[in-house]
Amino acid sequence: MKIVVFGASGRVGRRVVELLVHQGHMVFAVVHHNDPFQGTPNLFVKQMDVHDAGAVAAVLEESDAVISTLGSWGTKTGDVLSSAMESIIPAMKKHGVRRIVTLTGAVAFLPGEKPTLNQRLVQNVLKKADKRVIEDGEKHIQLLQASELDWTVLRSPVMMTLGKPTYQLADKLSGATASIHRQAVAQAMVDQIGDNTWLQQAPTIWRGSAKLRYTKDQ
Question: What's the domain range around 118?
């Protein structure tokens, strides 16, 4: 498969690319600045701005699926996820690409969802840090919901490199103190490409008992 990975140079994105290459896919890694993949076989690195609709459409031509590990924390505008979807979704439709898997935070709530008081408190704390980022995660889900594409959004708690890199997906919100290994998040995103269980849904990812088929740089 030809799979395009946006946010490929990030801490989760690099792991996603490594897993896909290991599985034998043709991977197009989209980066904004640096290229951490020099010399990797079966990998094509594309440097671009995800707001450039023409460049996004070009890289998606003849692709089979899209994975986005883009994030907005620490950015000037705080709207990277939703603004990227405004380029990616039309480009996918143009080229007939159906499958997209994206990543956002566990406190990006869905319309009609009923978080607990504790979960709302956590969201409010993070909104004080940067309200735009939380709203950006929620807006990008809403754009995908309206797209009619075969989308899955993984909602992740704090990501780190401690503990076992295993995971499970659930349709309930994460606990306020939950955390998960970055490698598990990367594996879950790659696994979704061939799994239709969570189509047009936004499960949360938890630590679990699933075994990883491949790990590197844990």
Answer: 2-206
CA distance 51 to 40: 26
* Contact by Cβ (8 Å): 95, 62: yes
**What confidence tens digit (pLDDT) does each residue in 176-203 have?**
557 899 999 999 999 999 999 999 999 9
Within-domain flag for 12? yes
C-alpha dihedral sign at 108, 111, 113, 115: positive
Strand-pairing partners, residue 46, are 30
Here the tokens at position 160 are 């780190």
Angle, alpha carbons 128-72-201 (nearest 5°)? 95
Evaluate whether 70 touches 8 at the Cβ level (below 8 Å): no
Tell me how many domains the chain contains: 1
Q: Residue 167: how many CB atoms within 10 A of its CB?
A: 23
Report the b/e string of 184-193 with b at 16+ CB within 10 A.
Answer: bbbbbbbbbb
What is the CATH number for 24? 3.40.50.720
Assess if residue 35 is contained within a domain. Answer: yes
Q: What token pair was written down for 218?
A: 């844990």
The per-residue pLDDT for range 86-130, each reduced to its tens digit, is 999 999 999 999 999 999 998 898 888 888 888 888 888 888 877
CA 169 to chain centre: 14
Beta bridge partners of 189: none
Q: Is residue 216 situated within a structural domain?
A: no
- Angstrom distance (rounded) from CA 51 to CA 152: 21
